[in-house]
Write a structure and sequence with these properties.
heterodimer, A: alpha+beta, 3-stranded antiparallel β-sheet, 5 helices, about 20% helix
Chain lengths: ~210, ~160
């Protein structure tokens, strides 16, 4: 496991995470974190701000692109075989629970694996879960990715090359899944959304209420 | 319920008799020694398969009917290139994945590979949605167990969650 020399690391916002010393919990096959499913965030984070490429259209998008839309923001990568597809699948299940607002939702998947996730590959991956623009894949330059992650305290670490040994295992990223309102301000941290026990009705109710009041 | 090939039920664990693992799965119909019982069974095996260029994740529920814990030490499949036992972890809010050397199925217990937790990492998937893929599980003290995994797409297995 001496691959750390291959990694580019960005320790952003979070501290105290020991890369080497994972204290494994006793074997439990369930993945939902303890604690509340939805953690209110109003007033705790800056508004959405980003500058990245929409891999579907090739166009640059900014926060204004998403104005008027509820946004679920998640950082992941396509070589992630388990948690990232699970999170996007949860998003796909959420859409029909939103009723008339289902078409307004933007599920924004930001890749942290710039070495492997070309725009074409990310586009194909995201489209497996739902059509654009509800499902939107974003890819930034290293600086753009760093800026967005830093703004919201998201940590990520990814190998520099597609041929790095066991690259999937080396990639790490915060599971933080943020819900932003149509005005661009963060509403909540969706704590159980990237797990097998998401509170989809709760998230849907929150989005519907937010949109009703917009 | 998916059909269960007869050989699924016919894997023997040498309970208390540390006998070298047999080379081939026990053939259906061959009489079991009286002191052993069919020990490890697998059901509801499935893959979430998205694209050939990215790993697929496999999930299955293993049951151990014997009086001794069973230790799963490896996995292989012609549909995977290479395959590994992996675990998704969320550690202090950080999503990561680790390679695990083995998992233990308790005596008279179950072990479930499930999304967001333990999974079989299928490195170079050669499969198609709707097909089944053959997966061989290897154990420390039991013969290998070969089981079919149903291949699902992005939506996963309908009843899995």
């Amino acid at each position: 496991m001496s691959r750390h020399a291959l990694d580019r690391r960005a320790m952003l916002g979070l501290s105290g995470f020991a890369l080497g010393g994972l204290a494994l919990r006793s074997a439990s096959a369930e993945s939902a974190p303890a604690g509340p499913a939805i953690i209110p965030l109003e007033g705790h984070l800056p508004p959405l701000a980003l500058h990245m490429q929409d891999v579907e259209t090739g166009q640059t998008v900014t926060a204004s692109t998403f104005r008027g839309h509820p946004v679920i923001l998640y950082f992941g990568f396509t070589r992630c075989p388990d948690t990232c597809p699970l999170t996007l699948q949860n998003a796909a299940k959420l859409v029909p629970l939103l009723g008339k607002y289902g078409k307004d939702l933007r599920v924004v998947f930001v890749t942290v694996d710039l070495a492997y996730d070309t725009a074409a590959r990310l586009k194909t991956f995201v489209a497996k879960f739902g059509p654009p623009p509800v499902f939107t894949g974003l890819r930034g330059t290293p600086a753009e990715l760093k800026a967005l992650a830093q703004r919201f305290g998201v940590y990520y670490r990814a190998p520099t090359g597609p041929d790095s040994p066991d690259p999937e295992g080396a990639i790490r990223h915060s599971s933080a899944t943020y819900l932003f309102g149509p005005n661009g301000w963060a509403i909540a941290l969706l704590a159980t959304f990237p797990s097998s026990r998401p509170d989809l009705p709760g998230v849907a109710a929150l989005i519907r209420k937010t949109m009703d009041n917009y | 319920m998916p059909r269960r090939p007869a050989f699924l039920a016919a894997v023997l664990v040498a309970a208390g008799l540390a006998q070298p693992a047999a080379a081939a799965p026990a053939a259906a119909g061959s009489p079991a020694p009286a002191i052993t019982a069919p020990a490890i069974t697998a059901k509801d095996g499935w893959f979430r398969y998205l694209l050939p260029q990215i790993p697929a994740a496999g999930f299955v529920t293993l049951a151990n009917e014997s009086d001794s814990p069973a230790v799963l030490t490896g996995v292989r499949s012609p549909a995977c290139g290479s395959a590994m036992l992996h675990r998704s972890l969320n550690h202090s809010g950080m999503d990561m994945m680790i390679h695990v050397q083995s998992v233990t199925i308790p005596a008279h217990g179950k072990f479930r590979f499930s999304p967001g937790a333990y999974h079989i990492m299928c490195m170079k998937p050669h499969m198609a949605v709707g097909q089944t893929a053959s997966v061989t599980l290897t154990f420390a003290a039991a013969p290998p167990l070969t089981v079919p995994f149903t291949v699902y797409g992005a939506d996963g297995r309908p009843a899995s969650q």
